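Write out this protein's structure.
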Amino acid sequence: MPAATRYLGKPIKRKEDPRLIQGLAHYVDDIVLPGMLHVAILRSPYAHAKIRSVDVSKARSAPGVVQVLTGADVRGSIGVVPCAAQIPDMKSAPRPVLANDRVRFVGEGVALVVATDPYVARDAIDLIEVDYEPLTPVVDPEKAIEKGSPVLYDDHKDNVAYRWQLEGGDVAAAFKKADKVVKQRLLNQRMIPTPMETRGVVADYKPGERQLTVWSSTQIPHLLRTQIAAMLDMPEHSVRVITPEVGGGFGSKLNVYAEEALAGYLAVRLGKPVKWIETRRENFQNTIHGRDQINDVEVAFKRDGTILGLRLHVIADLGAYYQLLTPLIPTLTGLMASGCYKIPAIRVEIVGVLTNKMSTDAFRGAGRPEATYLVERTMDLVAAELKKDPVEVRLKNFPKLQDFPYATPTGVIYDSANYPRSLDLALKLSGYKKLRQEQAKARKQGRCVGIGLSTYVEICAMGPSSAMPAGGWESATVRIEPSGMVNVMTGASPHGQGQETSFAQLGAEILGLEPADVNIIHGDTAIVPYGIGTFGSRGTAVGGTAVYKSLMKLREKLAVLAGFLMGEDPAKLVFEDMKIFSKTQPKKSLPFGEVVAAAYTAKTLPPNMEPGLDATTFFEPTNFTFPFGAHVCVVEIDTETGDVKLTKYVAVDDCGNVLNPLLVDGQVHGGVVQSFGQAMLEEAVYDEQGQLITGELMDYAIPRAADMPWIETDRTVTPSPVNPMGVKGVGEAGTIGATPALANAVADALSPYGVRHVDMPFKREKIWKLMQKVKSPSAARADRPQAARTGRHQNGSRRPK
């Protein structure tokens, strides 16, 4: 990779921002086609029920209604919603695009109306009469796996979707020789991704060309094309997917949904374009949810803080059906259970459970925030048990530099890291020693102040095809036009990551141009070569590497051509300031455009050189990458109200080499804020009847700007050996590192009250009740019992009933 000179490593403002800020960009709902029809979907009000009958006669006769369809009408014409992930002995849970004889969660589609106007369509679904036979719903995953629990599927004997086990090292021996063992139950609550733009689909069919075009707010345009073609039993070359601007995804649009296939089916059947735009309530009910794990963790350790072993039992609530990656996500928690620590022995058991709720799937971090949360809370519990500083326990258990590449007991191999360096920088930037002194003074004054930290590692740059359900490579085609302008066609599908800017920086640096001379094209399957998409912090580490390799191929070709024209050794040529010149004789040069023109006129080409300037790369990484970092924060709790205020936040992240620090900081900021949402506010709540109580933004709180202090960011740089650019990925770092730091800070603040652990979210009523149990912190310290060697800590969490 060229050394950072003019553009690489520089905080260049995003090229894509002007059109977004000025409202000139186009999202799915901005697409209007002549004769367009609109779709509304009738959704089940029951979490579990049989469908006795569906009467659509009144809806069909309503003015403006063009078509009404039920599950029976499309059965056999549209395939089930695809699931790409397979776990050994996993039970089937196929989701039809419209329910047939049974509904299994509130919000499941039962029938649809197509009309000339969206309001007519919405009114007409109220005319559909459905006769339901309510069944007993199963909402609590622990109750769902109890003997005698109602089952979601008649052909299943229980609701256990699968059992997944992983063990490395001698776990039994580790626990046998431990001086102490700490147990704790940890909850990762269910969350709703809540992108600013809900999902939407427009489909248009041209019968003469036999071409179906689907516009969708998706993160995976090519994979979506493949699946739509399969669901509709159409040749894949007859389907085109276009992804316009995407107003946030956070993993929720890394999926294939029923509405995308339904829209395509309707466009073909009716011969007119159709549009479906999701309401916010539909988004909350019917777009994937995230997290929802119960983690029972046991850790064995010595008196000096050395961790010997870890046992983890996970109950993962998968919801009623499998979406694209639903079964896979909890296994990532198991793979990353060691965190950034040298834990010799680990055993993980995951129980995937089917419940009458919306499916869980990839939500920013996707299994890794859960792993980091459990191991980082555990490290703080160990420190509290030994009465040591949490920093000391972490430093005691980091792998040494010479241990890398480091093979964990769970079977992954960390590429490169320097964990002590990032932690040291975070401690210095936050003034950690001074913070502890200030905390001691505040406590004497009766204030409730807590300091939390986390040191994390994440698995990113998803990754080698051998470990991925649908391939882990990425594509890029770079074409230099006769005018000298550069078009980069990437299989990645950026939607806020800023790669229209960073990839342009890369092109400008390698070819000696300006970023404005490099145009990034993505999201159109008719233009861009087949790609995997954007998720798992892979856009730059995998997609960017494909771009880099294609650019280098063209640079080498241009160097050979320029060297031939100038009579100069190609290895001695420099690309800079729109020129190609000799390193030893700078005056010996040619304009970049002149060399490009020579490649196209093809009159003066070297022997055996093909005309044109076009290069394609399919980059297959050999491993994942493993970014890491250290976060430190301070909270203060209002003793009268229980309100938790975040007063300081420092994030030090190591994502390898950095193409644009402005973009990196933006990703970290966004991730930290999203973590604040999980820690303090967000919680998807279903009642015992399976009704989503938090079904709108009036009931589901998300962070606001006023909730956050200034987030101070910095970084260390440990290049990855996995790709030639040495980049690792940063899109999910904030959501992985921040949540445990915030949780540790709250637990630290409440420790004088005898609280060892409290589950997220830290809502003020929950915190206030805990504090009211012990009015005097000093009394709590005096009365606090010692934790048993193998017993649960006082105030151990319990899943709410």
